[in-house]
Design goal:
The complex is a heterodimer of chains A (407) and B (269). Chain A has 407 residues and is an alpha+beta fold. Chain A has helices spanning 2-11, 15-55, 78-87, 121-124, 149-155, 190-195, 201-208, 228-238, 247-250, 252-290, 292-300, 305-340, 370-396, 400-404; strands at residues 58-62, 90-104, 107-116, 131-134, 144-147, 162-168, 174-185, 196-200, 216-221, 242-246, 343-344, 354-355, 358-359, 363-364. Chain A is built from 14 helices and 14 strands. In chain B, 18% of the residues lie in helices and 43% in strands. Chain B has a 13-stranded antiparallel β-sheet. The radius of gyration of chain B is 18 Å and the shape is globular. Classes of the chains: A alpha+beta (407), B alpha+beta (269). The interface between A and B is medium-sized, with 19 and 25 residues.
Chain lengths: 407, 269
């Protein structure tokens, strides 16, 4: 108790020195909370675009479809499969795929036709809310299609324009149909932007003569907290005759990028705190050296070396605690502000910039997570704890007589 | 061109030019001159090819062809009317089935257009569509367009002369130029020694693995010329699948107007 009392008393003595130390630590910690929230926001944005827009958390295909996409490699009995998934606590939406050619005016381009289940798709992805111009697909508008942003640019398409599609139907005949652009998507992912051509699944089935089966089932966990790998195993057991992949397996480059970003956050924290650590060390060393005669007196009065050591450590821990509170008071509101008011880079970033095929959002939001707040504070305690060791040990080993006469 | 595609020439030759294997002749005529003196073998190959060219080439042609396609997923029969003029102009119009009636493909030079009667639109095929199957067959759109590429990219030479299966044959081997960007590593074609009628063409990929075979048979007199009336394409990697072209009628050296091969004419029903 006595040690804590002394530590608290010392905290309030040389106020300027104390507050400079506390201020430096608080500033660094607040910046780190903000930076970590920004990075979390960037990752969440990427994940949202990759997983939430198009990829989905899991994808189920007929065996061999992924390696060699083919109109005929379909998942049969899709109603049963969907019901089975529903019973096991998954949300799922089927999709149909085919390749073809779209032409408008004198321009034409290869496209990936996609038949969308309008009722189920919004349950697994937010693609329906990601329309840049016009509107999302509608059941009552069977000739209305939604196209990728780059594709619209290549073909010179605007909302309401006509576009012809030619493809080879399942019976070998030449499927051709006239559509009207109902909507143009925002940037989603390289593939969708460049060749995405979305239509209601009923239109797809009629045009491509595919009455049954689906090419892909996109699945989402009902409980987001369920471990991704465990859920993958559960799905694979549920559908042993199909190919089940989670988004990390489908987009390994992206998964790796996310892992790397986590590591880079830790490295940035280390670098910043190395600087803060030196600052803290300097301030603490000064505060110890200034008080050597005082420590000599304390030792002469019977203060044990470990008591002195503990007092100095406790003193600096008080400082860290105050700094942490200050950092929270500044960093948290700052991050929370930018979580609702994004930093807009649209003037600098091309609208279609992508990383690992996933679209980059030009608006950068902060996302405040447990990690982005707790990690910087823990690091601050760790660095300050290490920085104080040397001055505290030095004070503990002082000889009382020499210390009293120290100038 | 991918492995499943067929160099245009054979197809065009028989489908469009009405049986003339002018691609071989074209090759002989337009092959770049070699820096070194061609060997006697090469000279002979080119001479025979020229002879074949003279024998088979027509200034223009018109005819009716039945195409039968069998794949693992469907079997279909189509009837087509065809016209050609010179090497660069050709028009194919579907007569049946009803669903695709009046769908037409026009080739002028290296460009290909398709007219789609259902939507009343004409579209120009881009490179991304070139590898797609033409009308659901084992031919690609590229096959119809890249007629002259073979002549530019390959060198012919006689690889066999003599009796095979009781017939006197001459076998040509076409090897690509070292710097040619082609998919076939080798094309071997057999013709009869007398009359120089094609019998068999085999296509090998870069690893020298057989990719497809074309069989020529049912030699008939059509339009005053002796031609194989049946052409069967068999892809090696898809057992049981094939495309057959059966020539029902052909006429040659007609006075076809250039306007026949125009975009306007393409839309005519």
């Amino acid at each position: 108790m006595q040690i804590l009392f002394f530590a608290l008393r010392n905290f309030n003595r040389a106020r300027t020195r104390t507050w400079i130390t506390v201020g430096a630590m608080a500033f660094a910690c607040a910046i780190m909370i903000f930076y970590a929230s920004l990075l979390e926001g960037w990752l969440a944005g990427m994940e949202k675009n990759a997983v939430g827009m198009d990829l989905g958390e899991f994808q189920i295909h007929a065996r061999g479809f992924r390696a060699d996409p083919d109109l005929y490699k379909r998942i049969g009995g899709e109603e049963n499969v969907l019901a089975q998934l529903g019973r096991q606590g998954f949300v799922a939406a089927p999709r149909l795929y085919a390749s073809g050619l779209a032409a408008a005016g004198n321009a034409s381009s290869g496209i990936e036709l996609r038949g969308v289940d309008l009722a189920r798709e919004p349950l697994v992805t937010a693609l329906n809310a990601h329309v840049w111009r016009g509107q999302w697909l509608a059941q009552e508008d069977q000739a209305g299609v939604v196209v990728g942003r780059k594709l619209a640019r290549i073909l010179g398409l605007g909302v309401g324009d006509e576009v012809v599609v030619v493809a080879q139907a399942a019976d070998g005949s030449t499927a051709n149909e006239l559509f009207r652009v109902r909507g143009i998507l925002k940037s989603v992912a390289e593939g969708v932007d460049r060749s995405g051509f979305l239509m209601p699944s009923a239109t797809f089935r009629r045009m491509m003569i595919v009455p049954h089966g689906v090419h892909q089932i996109v699945v989402k966990r009902q409980i987001p907290a369920e471990d991704l790998n465990r859920a993958t195993t559960r799905l694979a057991r549920l559908l042993p005759n199909h190919e089940v992949r989670n988004w990390r397996q489908l987009q390994p480059v992206l998964a790796r990028l996310f892992e790397m970003s986590d590591i880079s956050l830790v490295i940035m924290l280390l670098i910043t705190y190395a600087a803060v650590g030196i600052l803290t060390l300097n301030a603490l060393l000064m505060s110890v050296f200034e008080r050597i005669p005082e420590f000599g007196v304390m030792k002469a009065l019977g203060f044990s070396p470990w008591g002195l050591f503990a007092m100095i450590v406790a003193e600096s821990m008080f400082q860290v605690t105050v700094a942490a509170f200050l950092a929270l008071a500044v960093g948290l509101p700052l991050s929370l502000y930018f979580s609702s008011h994004p930093i807009d880079f649209s003037g600098f970033v091309q609208s279609s910039s992508t990383i690992a095929g996933v679209a980059l959002d030009a608006k950068w939001y902060c996302v405040v997570t447990m990690n982005s707040v707790v990690l910087p504070i823990l690091f601050l305690y760790l660095v300050a704890g290490l920085a104080i060791l040397y001055p505290a040990l030095k004070a503990a080993m002082l000889k009382p007589l020499a210390a009293i006469h120290h100038r | 061109m991918n492995r499943s595609s067929l160099p245009a020439s054979i197809f065009l030759v028989l489908l469009i030019a009405g049986g003339g294997i002018f691609w071989l002749a074209g090759n002989a005529a337009s092959a770049p001159s070699q820096p070194s003196q061609p060997s006697q073998d090469e000279q002979e190959a080119r001479a025979i090819l020229l002879e074949i060219d003279d024998l088979w080439r027509a200034t223009s042609s018109q005819g009716r062809v039945r195409m039968e396609v069998k794949t693992a997923n469907y079997t279909r029969t189509m009837l087509m009317d065809i016209w050609s003029k010179g090497k660069d102009k050709s028009l194919v119009r579907i007569v049946s089935p009803l669903k695709e009636k009046d769908t037409a493909s026009l080739k002028t030079g290296n460009t290909m257009y398709t007219y789609l009667p259902k939507t009343d639109r004409t579209i120009r095929l881009t490179s991304s569509m070139m590898m797609s199957a033409w009308m659901g067959s084992h031919f690609t759109n590229d096959d119809l367009v890249k007629e002259s590429r073979l002549a530019e990219d390959y060198d012919p030479r006689i690889s066999f002369k003599g009796k095979r299966d009781g017939k006197e044959v001459i076998e040509f081997t076409l090897l690509p130029h070292p710097d040619a960007a082609v998919v076939w590593g080798r094309i071997v074609m057999s013709v009869t020694a007398h009359g120089h009628l094609p019998l068999l063409a085999t296509y090998y990929d870069e690893d020298n693995v057989l990719a497809r075979t074309i069989y020529f048979s049912e030699v008939k007199n059509m339009g005053g010329r002796l031609l194989p009336a049946l052409l069967k394409v068999v892809p090696t990697d898809k057992p049981g699948e094939y495309t057959e072209l059966i020539y029902e009628a052909m006429r040659f050296d007609l006075d076809l107007p250039d306007t026949l091969f125009s975009l306007l004419e393409l839309r005519r029903r």
